[in-house]
Amino acid sequence: MFDSKYGVFFNGHHSSDFGLIALEDKKVEMPEKNKVLVDLPFANHQLDLSMIYGDQVYKERKYTQKFHLQADQYDKEGLYRLWTQVVNWLMDPATKTPLFDDVMHRYYYLAEVQKPPEYDEMLHWGTLTVEWTCYPFRISSIPEGDDDWDTFDFDFDIAQDVSYQVDGMVTLSLYNVGASTADIVVDCTAPMTISISGKIFTVPAGKSKGIPLFKGKNNVTVWGSGRIDFIFYKELI
């Protein structure tokens, strides 16, 4: 019926911090493709504009988990105090916050509890059904290029260099093995110019955001003098 050791981490707490027990009827929806189809006159097919910016766009997904809750003191007062703590913990974030499932815990959902949890009360215990609205992809908590073989995943990871010393010009390849375009943070010790898959970016010393890394192999050229680090995280469905 349940696993007392299993749960989720969200908004600074693990569900077990409140004594919650995750029941087996968890439901993780797969994200739906957001297709943009245009009917063509005098044609028997449609024009698919879904990937006009390079990636297939997906809709948000739902993650639903039912918990058993029971207070240490076996009365209504203790039970109401417990679900008050739990509901305030869940509903507090006003934006999407990392949600870690104990299964495949290296990846997290960006999630928010938008609908009120459903509470079913018994005599001295109850069940709470929580629905999180999530960003379509799960995000790795370990950056690409991490060289710790204890955490290396042969199913999903790729060994690659993400730090380089530049003295004039360097050509390299970066691999995005995720399911969507990744946003790179570039950290360099001096101003540099970067070409990624034909697009040119000029960045100052320090950290710069907003540079996309497309799925698969990306050919990169860097001009400048100093050290440059590419920081990015894979995303999977």
Proportion of helical residues: under 10%
Tell me the structural class: mainly beta
The total count of strands amounts to 20
Give the low-pLDDT segments.
Answer: none
The first-to-last residue Cα distance is 27 Å
Shape: globular
How much is the average pLDDT? 91
Order of helices and strands: EEEEEEEEHEEEEEEEEEEEE
Percent of residues in beta strands: over 45%
Rg calculated over all Cα atoms:
23 Å
Question: Helical segment tally?
Answer: 1
Architecture blueprint of SSEs:
Blueprint: E1 2-3, E2 8-10, E3 13-14, E4 21-23, E5 27-28, E6 37-39, E7 46-48, E8 61-70, H1 76-91, E9 97-101, E10 107-112, E11 118-121, E12 125-134, E13 138-140, E14 163-176, E15 182-188, E16 192-196, E17 199-203, E18 206-213, E19 216-231, E20 235-236
Antiparallel strand pairs: 1-4, 2-3, 2-9, 4-8, 5-8, 6-7, 8-12, 9-10, 10-12, 10-13, 11-12, 13-20, 14-19, 15-18, 15-19, 16-17, 16-19
